[in-house]
Amino acid sequence: MTKLFDTHAHLDFPQIDRDREALITELREQGLAVVNVGVDLKSSQASLELARAHPHVFAACGIHPHEAKNFSPEVAERLEELLGDAVAVGEIGLDYYRNLSPKEAQLSAFRAQLRLAQRLDLPVILHYREAGEDFFRVLEEVAPLRGVWHAFSGDLTLARRAIDLGLHLGIGGPLTYRKNEPTRQAVKEVPLERLLLETDAPFLPPEPFRGKRNDPLKVRLVALRLAELLGLSLEEVAAATYENACRLFGVRPEFGGKGGQA
Predict the structure, then answer these.
(1) Mean pLDDT, rounded, for 101-130
(2) How many CB atoms lie within 10 A of CB 160?
(3) 96: number of Cβ within 10 Å
(4) How confident is the model at residue 256 (pLDDT cuts 50, 70, 90)?
(5) Domain tally for the chain?
(6) Cα separation, 214 vs 153, whole angstroms
(7) The CATH number of the domain where 127 resides is what?
(8) Domain that holds residue 11
(9) Residue 235 φ/ψ, nearest 5 degrees
(10) Which of 63, 93, 188, 221 is deepest in the core (most CB within 10 A)?
(11) Which residues of the chain form beta strands (DSSP E)?
(12) What is the pLDDT of residue 258?
């Protein structure tokens, strides 16, 4: 069995309501571990519940930049409580594309959660969209970092900046998109030990499933495309990225009995 690790999914989202338990069972049977990532307090709690019920699922808890307008001392206190059983702080970051929260609120919540991650010695799961230098300025305040740039689809310059900060790159469905040649060139130039696989399920499905619901089973298609680009076998890429995820998140998944954090 070729084990794989999807380091970013949202199995608690309503798009997966109809077949959640069947899907999670299939993931276990296929040797596929998942980090389920919270975007607010409710989904962070749901992530923890999934992780407690399934030893191949792990929880990250955080406040997404879209929800930053709701960040408060009370939210921060509750988040810290939830993080006692989580493997990462996330999904956190900046999103100036949709701007569903004011920029100042995003920056404040981002800084607060980065400090919280440092204090709790947890890695971070980072969201970035059209935030320019603000993203890097905030990260440089706390660098070096342990964490992952989720849904990385930048070029080699951005990839190197992320790695210089101490980050991993989360590689998902966009790697397979026709217009993403700069990302394909970037992943060929960065160390394999800094790459992680992800799906962002139910979003960002790889080719040929664009326009349909994504799920963690499709991380295999990302792994196959990455293996092709690197001139490696699927097994080599799967093994390397699996161990990268285990080290970063401090976990050792089990697919039969009880698993847990390393």
Answers:
(1) 98
(2) 14
(3) 15
(4) confident
(5) 1
(6) 17
(7) 3.20.20.140
(8) 4-261
(9) -65, -40
(10) 63
(11) 4-9, 32-37, 57-61, 88-95, 124-129, 147-149, 167-171, 195-197, 251-252, 260-261
(12) 43
Residue ranges of E strands in 70-156: 88-95, 124-129, 147-149
What is the distance between the alpha carbons of residues 131 and 109, in angstroms, rounded to a whole number?
14
- Token pair for residue 100? 């569903």
Which amino acid makes up residue 228? Answer: E
Distances (CA, A) of 106 to 79, 109, 110, 150, 247: 16, 5, 6, 17, 29
Residues 99-112 have pLDDT tens digits of: 999 999 999 999 99
């040797």: which residue's tokens? 31
Integer Cα distance of 159 and 242 in angstroms: 20
- For 76, the token pair is 């921060």
Site of tokens 């399934």: 54
Tell me how long the chain is.
Answer: 262
pLDDT tens, position by position, 45-73: 999 999 999 999 999 999 999 999 999 99
Residue 1: the pLDDT is 82
